[in-house]
């Protein structure tokens, strides 16, 4: 019998270390990608598609994301590499495909970072619009750097806290919507009136928003490389994905369609949190304090998503350098202080 034995290089020379536990990976899997897509983007989808279209759109997107994450979990256990699917693509398909995917993903990450920073401004405008946009962007650009500038364990702990806040508040929101604070059991009234606004065309217009709201779930694969025991931790984290999909997206979207009419005037012509169906629902129920708390949770969500974007972008470029598809200096930039300053300096300009 003839053959070759090849030792798989899991990226030992990237200067990244396995310091995270199962708790960190699980919380990143549960809440890291929950941002403005769900909290804010659903308002436009509710108006254009109608309640049934919004719910079915999230149901279909959740099914797709669940299947993809099962595959990601399998690959991350077998190949816990720095840039995850970028290097998987190079191994399974071709180096050319990995090169294109890696640099495309890196570009998408820093564009997304600028988008998240701009979203922070629109959210804070819910309370005050006297602070210049450039000032807010600069302040929270520094905040994101500080979250990532220390050891990866600090970043992970921040994600544990923010994910806990997001998950806990969504459960409170669902209970509040079920409680009918105005004393009027709305039921499926809005479904009966007009379940599909603009018909099948309206339903198709909802799907991109549903998929966008779930973007970033693949970031769990990046974290696997820095977990102490990915073979044990990754299956547990992936198994928890159904909680995020079920509570946040499926039940959350259902609650929106039950308590907010697609014809509600507050969904039209408002920027940022003012147009969020979650905020609108609490305002309509006569609970302005709950609306303020919801806006604060949305703010935390966007900062969390921006931080994860910075993390994913840095791991992508380090992984590319590891397989000689990016300048070797990128490996040195794996040290947090240098990496984030380098990368976020590029990001700041498009945000402004």
From TrEMBL:
GO molecular function: amino acid transmembrane transporter activity
Family annotation (Gene3D superfamilies): Amino acid/polyamine transporter I (1.20.1740.10)
InterPro entries noted in UniProt: AA-permease/SLC12A_dom, Amino_acid_permease_CS, APC_YAT
GO cellular component terms attached to this protein's record: membrane
Amino acid permease/ SLC12A domain ranges (all copies): 24-329
Keyword Transmembrane helix in annotation: yes
Main location: membrane
Topology in the lipid bilayer: Multi-pass membrane protein
Parts of the chain that traverse the membrane: 25-46, 52-72, 84-106, 134-155, 167-191, 203-229, 241-260, 293-313
Keyword terms of this UniProt record: Amino-acid transport, Membrane, Transmembrane, Transmembrane helix, Transport
Keyword flag Transport: yes
Places the protein is found: Membrane
Pfam families, per the entry: AA_permease (PF00324)
Protein name per its UniProtKB record: Amino acid permease/ SLC12A domain-containing protein
């Amino acid at each position: 019998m003839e053959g070759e034995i090849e030792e798989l290089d899991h990226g030992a020379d990237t200067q990244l270390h396995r310091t995270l536990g199962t708790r960190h990976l699980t919380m990143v899997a549960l809440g890291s990608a929950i941002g403005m897509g769900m909290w804010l983007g659903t308002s436009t989808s509710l108006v254009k598609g109608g309640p049934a279209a919004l719910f079915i759109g999230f149901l279909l997107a959740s099914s797709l994301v669940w299947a993809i994450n099962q595959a990601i979990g399998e690959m991350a256990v077998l190949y816990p590499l720095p840039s995850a699917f970028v290097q998987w693509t190079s191994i399974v398909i071709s180096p050319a495909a990995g090169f294109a995917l890696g640099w495309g993903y890196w570009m998408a990450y820093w564009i997304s970072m600028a988008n998240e920073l701009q979203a922070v401004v629109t959210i804070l405008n819910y309370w005050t619009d006297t602070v210049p946009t450039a000032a807010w962007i600069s302040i929270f650009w520094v905040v994101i750097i500080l979250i990532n500038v220390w050891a990866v364990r600090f970043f992970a702990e921040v994600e544990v806290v923010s994910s806990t806040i997001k998950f806990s508040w969504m459960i409170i929101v669902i209970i509040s919507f079920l409680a009918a604070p105005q004393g009027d059991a709305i039921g499926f009234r809005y479904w009966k009136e007009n379940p599909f606004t603009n018909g099948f065309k309206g339903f198709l217009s909802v799907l991109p928003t549903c998929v966008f709201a779930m973007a970033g779930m693949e970031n769990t694969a990046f974290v696997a490389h820095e977990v102490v025991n990915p073979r044990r931790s990754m299956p547990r984290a992936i198994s928890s994905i159904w909680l995020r999909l079920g509570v946040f997206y499926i039940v959350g979207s259902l609650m929106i369609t039950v308590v907010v009419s697609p014809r509600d005037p507050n969904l039209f012509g408002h920027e940022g949190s003012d147009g969020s169906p979650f905020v609108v629902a609490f305002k309509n129920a006569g609970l302005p304090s709950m609306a303020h708390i919801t806006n604060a949770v949305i703010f935390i969500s966007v900062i969390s998503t921006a931080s994860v974007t910075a993390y994913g972008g840095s791991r992508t470029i380090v992984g590319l350098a590891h397989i000689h598809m990016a300048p070797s200096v990128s490996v040195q930039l794996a040290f947090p202080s240098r990496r984030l300053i380098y990368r976020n300096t590029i990001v700041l300009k498009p945000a402004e």
